[in-house]
Amino acid sequence: MSFASPAFLWYYLPLVLGLYLVLPRSWRNGLLSVASLVFYAWGGGAFVLLLLACMAVNFTAGILVDTGRSEIESEQEHGRPHIASTSARRAVLVATVAFDLGILAVWKYGDFATRQLHELTGSVQVLAVALPIGISFFTFHHLSYVVDVYRGSRRSQRSPVQFITYIAMFPQLIAGPIVRYHEIAEQLSDTKRNRLEDISEGFPRFALGLAKKVVIADAIAPVADAAFNGNPAALDFRTAWIGAIAYTLQIYFDFSGYSDMAIGLGRMFGFRLPENFNRPYSSVSVTDFWRRWHMSLSRWFRDYLYIPLGGNRGSTAMTYRNLYIVFLLTGFWHGANWTFLIWGLYHGSWLAAERALGIARADPNRHVVLRRALTLLIVIVGWVFFRSSDIGRAGKYLATMAVPELSSHSEVLDGVLTTRISLLLVLAALVALLPRSFVMGRLLERASPPARVARLAYAGVAAPYAAVLVAAGTFSPFLYFQF
């Protein structure tokens, strides 16, 4: 079920919000647990059983790891050795992490891996399995939970309802933001909230995301689709660049729109979910870009992979190794395709180069215009790998972009690049020119007069207009649903 679908906007969300208002506050997590499982089953069908099985394993593991920690603390107080308890806790952690990654490997990468082996040997049977929706996100939530409990940053959940609320909370279940357990643990038990105030503050943020998705992302999507889905040989220089720019804008407005909707929905139910975007197309370096794009994923890899690998505390060679490992996995996390691996290595290489040249530490206020333009160019080129169905098509597309033949004309976009969509493309592109500190989602949370006007505009104008477009059937699934 998409946030931008009639079923969600006119039936599911009003029903859940209505129950949230009339039921006792202490029932919030129970309501969200049931509603979230229904939400997942609506779109994922029988895969809800896989989600429940994963939750059962991780819930149990959290208790075992936490109980082992309590035993260690007790033994330390009495001066007794605690080697056995430490080893047991570590064994439970390793087994649980292996289980979570194994589930992800089989369901998301089994088809890809066996297909590569089949092409090499001709004898391996291809494992054709459907991709459970949101598996990359709920796997990372499970990993965050067991690792945070093992590290002692938070105690384990004894309440299955609160645990299900954290893992399956429908605002962030399918496409994030990725919420690390220690960020939300205290909020799960805090149900003494002003529900009407939460809804009134969260709805404008939800409306902002809905407008981004339906009004902008869905409108320019046909331009990117026409450019990337056809024969690359049919493109000319100008058409290729328009298609690449269209996809650059589409994926930003689509994914940041989903994040705004998720954050707004979370706020409506009394949760403050982490921000996921911070004006990424105003970045002055690729390093800066990854501090602003899909920030919850960057933070997850930093906390649970980059720092445990040693981060930048070791030798220069080890730091570069860690960067490449992180971005290789960042690319592969997005999808089982060589194009995502190349995209991850592409960004990892730029980060390594910026680190070697000192660009990552340069004053962000120097040569701002030039650095923003160069960074955006690098990002646009990277999106070609991300959007292309295979490496060969990506190479041909980039080759067309590299040769400025302005006299040639392609008819690929003639049927989709209307005056209205051209205007929307231009308006959407202005996001790259706005000040680096201007973030509409954060503006909506302020108490200033401009913020109040913006909240009224999104709640009273943007949301109804987007709802009309949804009613007309001009919405599509979010891009990150496939990851």
Topology at a glance:
Elements: H1 6-22, H2 28-44, H3 47-77, H4 83-121, H5 135-151, H6 160-168, H7 170-173, H8 181-189, H9 195-229, H10 237-268, H11 286-289, H12 295-306, H13 316-334, H14 338-357, H15 368-387, H16 391-402, H17 419-429, H18 440-443, H19 449-471
Helix pairs in contact: 2-6, 3-4, 3-5, 4-5, 6-8, 9-10, 9-19, 10-15, 10-16, 12-13, 13-14, 14-15, 15-16
How is this structure best summarized?
This protein is mainly alpha-helical and 483 residues long. The chain contains 19 helices and no strands. The protein has helices at 6-22, 28-44, 47-77, 83-121, 135-151, 160-168, 170-173, 181-189, 195-229, 237-268, 286-289, 295-306, 316-334, 338-357, 368-387, 391-402, 419-429, 440-443, 449-471.
Distinct helical segment count: 19
Query: How many beta-strand elements?
Result: 0
N-to-C CA distance: 15 Å
Helix content: 55-70%
- Main sheet properties: none
- Taken together, the total number of domains comes to 2
H/E order of the elements? HHHHHHHHHHHHHHHHHHH
Structural class: mainly alpha
Instruction: Give the radius of gyration.
Output: 23 Å
Spans with pLDDT under 50 lasting ≥5 residues?
A: none
Beta-strand proportion: under 5%
Mean pLDDT: 88
Shape: globular
Structure description:
Helix content is 69%, strand content 0%. It has 483 residues and is mostly helical. The protein folds into 2 domains: 28-192, no CATH class; 198-284 and 364-482, no CATH class. 41% of the residues are buried. The model has no long low-confidence stretch (mean pLDDT 88).
